[in-house]
Amino acid sequence: MVKHETRIRVQYYETDAMGIVHHSNYIRYFETARTEFFRSRGYSYDRMEKSGVYMPVLTVSAEYKAAILYDEEISVICWIEKLKGASLSLGYEVRNAHTGELHAKGTSSHGFTDLKLKPVRLKRVAPEIYGVLKAAAE
Amino acid sequence: MVKHETRIRVQYYETDAMGIVHHSNYIRYFETARTEFFRSRGYSYDRMEKSGVYMPVLTVSAEYKAAILYDEEISVICWIEKLKGASLSLGYEVRNAHTGELHAKGTSSHGFTDLKLKPVRLKRVAPEIYGVLKAAAE
Amino acid sequence: MVKHETRIRVQYYETDAMGIVHHSNYIRYFETARTEFFRSRGYSYDRMEKSGVYMPVLTVSAEYKAAILYDEEISVICWIEKLKGASLSLGYEVRNAHTGELHAKGTSSHGFTDLKLKPVRLKRVAPEIYGVLKAAAE
Amino acid sequence: MVKHETRIRVQYYETDAMGIVHHSNYIRYFETARTEFFRSRGYSYDRMEKSGVYMPVLTVSAEYKAAILYDEEISVICWIEKLKGASLSLGYEVRNAHTGELHAKGTSSHGFTDLKLKPVRLKRVAPEIYGVLKAAAE
Q1: Which range, of B39-53, B92-106, C68-82, averages the lowest pLDDT?
Q2: From the Swiss-Prot or TrEMBL record, what is one GO molecular function term (chains A, B, C, D) (predicted)?
Q3: Hey, is the C-beta of A87 within 8 angstroms of any chain D C-beta?
Q4: A68 and chain C in contact, CB less than 8 A
Q5: Element (H, E) at A77
Q6: Is residue C11 within a helix (H) or strand (E), and if so which, with residue range?
Q7: pLDDT of residue B46
Q8: C-alpha to C-alpha distance for D102 and C105, rounded to whole angstroms
Q9: Helix axes A24-40, B24-40, angle to 10 degrees
Q10: How close, in Å, is residue B96 to chain A by CA atoms?
Q11: Residues A76/A5, Cβ–Cβ less than 8 Å
């Protein structure tokens, strides 16, 4: 299974009055991580959308383990948990890029749809992308 | 069980290039809803923090059902799913404020801690708040 | 001159590690305020866009006077500083909704364009909207 | 004069329903750019704050020239426009990292203060930082 790592420098505007990264921003880090994961496989979102494939978010979850501080460099690891004909589940881990300390774990699931958000079977409409994801999932 | 409703007008800066509210913002709507829920019970976050009680987020989840559009008025319903000695689970529903259409469901769980994020038993450190939450949970 | 006031409750996710509202969020408050200002004149953005009129931001500025704290209720006052054939300047003041203390002042300027962001003369393409804005500016 | 360049990959959550980066996010890009500019001079914000020097934002302005699209790689150039005893002005340009196309120009000004936001003269409280900034400004 491919585990892709994306490094992110925490920004001041992502912190809150508790002096730590606001919990909603982890959901954004997950998005950045899966975007870079797909890019690393040769399919930027842009290229996927040009192939007519959209991946709206169906569910998202996060489990917070340890606060992230301002200016910390984090490493977000992303992998495919399950690839099905019309949907995809991803797993995430957020760690300190240097110490490896675990900050959070998460998941997201996505449908494959066309531009009008009508579900499609990825294998049929974009077999090449399906193959690439299949390979990364194994 | 008390189900508290908070109305929110969707802002342009909350939309994304798909023309809909970005999924990360639902997590922020949940926060607004639980803040107003606590305020409605007589305990604004501010007042809780002044009582020395903090409620860091332990987990969060969202299930997206239907896109929210710009300028839509939404209604976020929040209730206590489970109150324990040192933690709390909340449930959420996001609906169109006028048609009642369900946009999303969600949950969050929180620990009770002191300022230094050390877990505390709410019943002991703030029995009055515990009583108010207990009543709202039933 | 019409001065329209919009009340906003400051959210936790808008604060930063200094314990105050992050300065970038004032620009978002300005947007909320001008949206409500236009709505109060009978022209929500939605309705303007349906009339084929877009108002992209050309410039924005803010002058910060006093920090805004979490959970504060603020009042954002918005008015038309100058209405021209193809553009519009707006002024803003951010105040505490209760004490009136001045937190910030700001401006934004906007072009009138069609959907493809090609400049248009508002007076010609949407004389009714032009009339309403003209009246509010005087 | 030192002109420091920071590369930023535009995120999906930074776009809006017009399909472009929301104008408020440029203010955040400016912050990222000045943070990296200071880091490149040996003074991360963290290190400055540990030296007891804070730099609250006094004013900010942006002039929008051309929309930024999702997934674009931008380059934000930041430099010192004026260094005074108790304040600092910075200039910014946002360009496409590959074509160099100008997206926006901006400015920000900052006071030097202590932790309690009381103005201080940088030259006196932190002569080393003052010297570094002076050199970068020339």
Answers
A1: B39-53
A2: fatty acyl-CoA hydrolase activity
A3: no
A4: no
A5: strand A73-83
A6: none
A7: 84
A8: 27
A9: 170
A10: 18
A11: yes
Do the beta carbons of residue A108 and residue A47 sit within 8 Å? no
Cα atoms in the Cβ-side hemisphere of radius 13 Å centred on B128: 8
| Residue C111 pLDDT | 97
Nearest-Cα residue of chain C relative to residue B70: C46
How would residue A45 be classed by pLDDT, with cut points 50, 70 and 90?
A: confident
Nearest to D138 by CA among D74, D87, D79, D89: D79
ipTM of the complex as predicted:
0.95
Q: Angle, to 10 degrees, between the axis of helix D24-40 and the axis of helix C24-40?
A: 170
Average pLDDT, chain B: 96
Inform me whether the pLDDT recorded for B11 exceeds 90.
Answer: yes
pTM reported for the whole predicted model: 0.97
Rounded to 5°, angle at Cα D34 from D28 and D39: 130
DSSP D14: G
Q: What is the pLDDT of residues D20-42, one digit of tens each?
A: 999 999 999 999 999 999 999 99
Q: Please determine, for residue C46, whether its predicted confidence score (pLDDT) is greater than 90.
A: no
- β partners of residue B5: B77
Q: Which residues contact D72 (CB under 8 A, 6 or more apart)?
A: D9, D10, D96, D97
- CB contacts < 8 A (A, D): 30
Nearest CB to C12 within list A13, A17, A70: A17
Q: Which residues of B touch C71 (CB under 8 A)?
A: 35, 44-46
Mutate to test the interface with C, among D26, D60, D65, D89 (most CBs of C within 10 A): D60
Q: Distance, in angstroms, between C24 CA and closest chain D CA?
A: 6
Best C71, C108, C115 member to test B by mutation, with max B CBs in 10 Å, is C71
Chain A CB within 8 Å of residue C22 CB: yes
Q: CB distance from D28 to chain A under 8 Å?
A: yes
Of the two residues D111 and B45, the one the predictor is more confident about is: D111
Model pLDDT for residues C91-137, shown as the tens digit of each residue? 999 999 999 999 999 999 999 999 888 999 999 999 999 999 999 99
| Chain A CB within 8 Å of residue C21 CB | no
Mark the ranges of chain D whose per-residue pLDDT is less than 70: none
- Asked if the model's pLDDT at residue A33 lies above 90, the reply is yes
Counting one residue from chain A and one from chain C, the pairs whose CB atoms sit within 8 A come to 27
DSSP string, D69-120: BTT-EEEEEEEEEEE-SSEEEEEEEEEETTT--EEEEEEEEEE-B-TT--B-
Report the mean per-residue pLDDT for chain C: 96
**Taking CA atoms, what residue in D is nearest to B16?**
D16
Query: What is the pLDDT, as a whole number, of residue D121?
Result: 96
